[in-house]
Design brief:
With 279 residues, this protein is of the alpha/beta class. The protein is built from 11 helices and 12 strands. The chain has helices at 13-24, 39-46, 59-65, 83-100, 121-136, 181-192, 195-198, 212-223, 239-249, 258-264, 271-277, and strands at 4-8, 28-33, 50-53, 71-75, 106-109, 140-145, 147-148, 164-168, 176-179, 202-205, 208-210, 227-231. The longest helix is centred in the first third of the chain and has 18 residues, at 83-100. The mean pLDDT is 96.
Length: 279
């Protein structure tokens, strides 16, 4: 068996962060993508990554893409017209392909709270994938990220702005746990490159915990642009996002293990550090 790690979603933000972290560790990487001719796929190939066409809607191609690997970085997304239902369907294809290919180790990037019956549709869809992976009895680990810092990027003040407003459908005084995508990649890579020590791990990861009022204060300090918080009505959201923000607003919501996160990723970013790093 070669020391080759396959990455699902390698041309996306989260999968791309996993690829970056694996390459930094000197690992050999196979990128699974639907379009090997895309700009991002070609950029990966130029960095020495093996690019393989595999679509989670195609079980045969997916299974073939998992042959001969030592570990799999697995993730799913609820984006698309079929939302969480489609996420579960595609996730089950990936899990079944890993089982049929007898993949030695799987690291599944899920979501914080997936195992706690949140009732949030796109958390529950990820939990169904977790359960399917558990049923295979393949050696595996779960990484459960909290709220991505990148979700706030579009609300940061643009260059030349005189003021800015961050709008979220939750109270400004309730703490929210945060993680940068780069740190998700580093944690997944740390686990994927240590199968013997990582099998059975389930870790909820975060780099910071701040209220929205603290977040806007840090944005103001980092950008020099006065920024304030405005609470939006949660009732205007669809069921999926509405249930998520109601869950955020009723503590405890996320329950990350900050010490375990830092042990796996000593470079883990706080929100203030993330603001500086992205400039």
């Amino acid at each position: 068996m070669s020391d080759l790690i396959a990455v699902v979603g390698a041309t996306g933000k989260q999968g791309g962060a996993v690829v970056d972290a694996l390459l930094e560790r000197g690992a050999a990487v196979r990128a699974l993508t639907r379009d090997a001719g895309s700009d991002r796929a070609r950029a990966l190939a130029a960095r020495g990554v093996e690019v393989v066409v595999a679509d989670a809607e195609d079980p045969v191609a997916t299974r073939a893409a998992l042959e001969g690997i030592s570990a799999l970085s697995l993730m799913t997304t609820f984006s698309g017209e079929d939302g969480p239902r489609g996420e579960t369907r595609r996730g089950l294809v990936l899990v079944e392909a890993a089982r049929d290919a007898d993949v030695p180790f799987v690291v599944h990037s899920s979501v914080g709270g997936a195992e706690r019956d949140t009732g949030i549709p796109h958390f529950e869809s990820k939990r169904r994938v977790e359960e399917a992976l558990e049923a295979t009895r393949l050696p595996h680990a779960f990484v459960r990220p909290v709220f991505f810092m990148e979700n706030l990027a579009y609300q940061l003040p643009p260059e030349g702005a005189e003021e800015a407003v961050v709008r979220m459908p939750m109270p400004g005084t309730v703490p929210l746990q945060l993680i940068a995508v780069v740190d998700v990649g580093r944690v997944v890579a740390a686990l994927a490159t240590d199968p013997a020590g990582s099998a059975g791990t389930a870790v909820e990861i975060a780099g910071d915990e701040l209220t929205l009022e603290q977040i806007v204060a840090q944005i103001s300090a980092a950008t020099g642009v006065p920024t304030r918080f405005e609470q939006l009505p949660v009732d205007a959201l669809d069921d999926d996002r509405g249930s998520m923000f109601r869950w955020f607003s009723t503590l405890p919501a996320y329950q990350a293990d900050f010490a375990a996160t830092a042990a796996l990723d000593p470079q883990v970013l706080t929100f203030a550090e993330w603001l500086v790093a992205r400039r």
